[in-house]
Design the sequence.
């Protein structure tokens, strides 16, 4: 074991472990520090992956119970085993974390279990989970510590009946009533899981719309579908307190713009109003790094104000997405190794993994209007897509926004079946600066859901072929 490295990475999440692996591939001696005791960060351990495992099995349950009979498939007395669902989730997570450890060994990346903190002078102190302390030195230090749930005044999370996304992934029983604070991606995904399994779900959102940041037309259609599925929304409202009374939780809700207070009873409260950068205990003050008003570390090409110290992922500006951190991980590793790392932030997609899914990349109509950019719109509904009709999954549409003069694709927004996979084509089009006509004239296999993307591109030019 050495105490001198080319690079030390603090944090073993999607940003940290990918940076460490890429550094190893580039011949750099790298050390990754992770205090959780398992690699993969929030995403793999208590976020993206376990939530998708539960989303999938709960969706299969609902389809078997409610949708399959209309297709001629009959199953009597359909039920579920929550313990078995959770076991599937744990098995998925465990296998993937071990996979990262294998990649570390394969690329000669060292791994230290503990908390890392800057000491100045390119040194990092590691306080091991076993109580031991070690100091290491590196030419480059990368902060990739991710984020944590944003707390809400008046709501104390205990991960039992008032939970964050972490607790919502491990409820021991299906609550009769679930109140979700926040109509963002996490709240709607976890709300969908427990609604499918039998919960009455109420979503309280401070703004007058769900999924802030998504294209407005998509958000409205999305809310209508979720309401049809059984979710109840209270928009323009804020939660100001939670108390346990008579065996239930009483939630105090007020209009966001002030007004009369309303009390709602529920069994479980999920607080999911967003996440904030995790920078506590990193020793930023020792190297002169000051965070901005949102707790983020300012960077220029991932370099902080401290020489030799870099930062990526949720601790810097931009969407808090695992794949955004992964892209930055590769870029910063290449920069540290003397290469030219780059990330195109216009081509980073985002997905809400409900049913139907919602996926987006590039600019929204609201952003283009605010920037006074002239654009054309092409839309195509899944109701007119032959494969969606055959699959009896026709909710949603694809919308493409293209520059009015050049036809360059500026944004693509989808709601419908499997759009989380289909958005990759749109991201590639933006990355390659493709025109809508390029997509429209590219052959897509028939019958596939992806034809809806081609048809939307044809609609930009006014020549959609209706199915």
Sequence:
């Amino acid at each position: 074991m050495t105490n001198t490295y080319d690079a030390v990475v603090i944090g073993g999440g999607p940003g940290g472990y990918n940076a460490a692996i890429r550094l190893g591939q580039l011949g750099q001696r790298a050390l990754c520090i992770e205090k959780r005791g398992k690699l993969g960060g929030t995403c793999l351990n208590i976020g993206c992956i376990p939530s998708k495992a539960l989303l999938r099995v709960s969706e299969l349950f609902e389809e078997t119970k409610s949708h399959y009979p209309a297709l001629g498939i009959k199953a009597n007395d359909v039920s579920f085993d929550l313990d078995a669902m959770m076991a599937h989730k744990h098995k998925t997570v465990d296998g993937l974390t071990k996979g990262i450890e294998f990649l570390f060994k394969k690329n000669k990346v060292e791994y230290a279990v503990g908390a890392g903190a800057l000491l100045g002078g390119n040194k990092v102190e590691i306080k091991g989970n076993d109580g031991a302390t070690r100091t290491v030195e590196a030419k480059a230090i990368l902060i990739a510590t991710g984020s944590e749930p944003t707390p809400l005044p008046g709501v104390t999370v205990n991960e039992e009946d008032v939970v964050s996304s972490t607790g919502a992934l491990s409820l021991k029983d299906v609550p009769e009533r679930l109140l979700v604070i926040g109509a963002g991606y996490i709240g709607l995904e976890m709300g969908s899981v427990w609604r499918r399994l039998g919960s009455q779900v109420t979503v309280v959102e401070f703004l007058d719309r769900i999924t802030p940041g998504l294209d407005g037309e998509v958000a409205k259609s999305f809310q209508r579908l979720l309401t049809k599925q059984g979710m109840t929304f209270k928009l323009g409202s804020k939660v100001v307190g939670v108390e346990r009374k008579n065996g239930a939780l009483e939630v105090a809700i007020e209009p966001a713009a002030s007004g009369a207070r309303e009390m709602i009873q529920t069994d479980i409260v999920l607080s999911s109003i967003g996440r904030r950068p995790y920078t506590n205990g990193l020793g930023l003050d020792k190297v002169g790094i000051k965070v901005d008003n949102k707790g983020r570390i300012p960077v220029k090409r991932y370099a902080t104000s401290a020489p030799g110290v870099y930062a990526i992922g949720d601790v810097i500006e931009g969407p808090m997405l695992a794949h955004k951190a992964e892209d930055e991980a590769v870029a910063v590793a290449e920069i540290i190794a003397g290469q030219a790392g780059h990330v195109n932030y216009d081509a980073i997609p985002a997905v809400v993994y409900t049913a139907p899914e919602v996926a987006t990349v590039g600019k929204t109509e609201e952003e283009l209007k605010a920037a006074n950019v002239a654009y054309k719109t092409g839309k195509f509904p899944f109701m007119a897509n032959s494969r969606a009709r055959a699959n009896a999954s026709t909710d949603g549409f694809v919308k493409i926004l293209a520059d009015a003069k050049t036809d360059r694709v500026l944004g693509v927004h989808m709601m419908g079946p499997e759009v989380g996979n289909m958005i990759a084509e749109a991201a590639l089009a933006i990355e390659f600066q493709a025109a809508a006509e390029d997509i429209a004239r590219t052959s897509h296999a028939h019958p596939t859901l992806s034809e809806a993307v081609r048809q939307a591109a044809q609609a930009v030019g006014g020549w959609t072929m209706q199915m």
Observations:
- The mean pLDDT is 96.
- The CA atoms of residues 403 and 428 lie 17 Å apart.
- The longest strand covers residues 110-120.
- The domain at 162-273 is CATH 3.50.50.60 (FAD/NAD(P)-binding domain).
